[in-house]
Amino acid sequence: MLSASDALYRSESYGPPALAAAIVHDTVAWFSSVEKIRSTAEHTGGQVIFGHDPAQLRTLRTGVGNFYT
Question: pTM to 2 decimals?
């Protein structure tokens, strides 16, 4: 699992095509980061976990019992 945290807020940002959020100040560096995340995911077979994607969160196991939500 690759935790993208705030580098990729939601799956829509990941694309393709990748879509930068309005808060991104350096789009060239951001696109480079996205491609690095994409390359790592493809090379390792890892799943990208987005920082704030409610649809994805509903598909993930977030804890055991009532310990985590």
Answer: 0.79
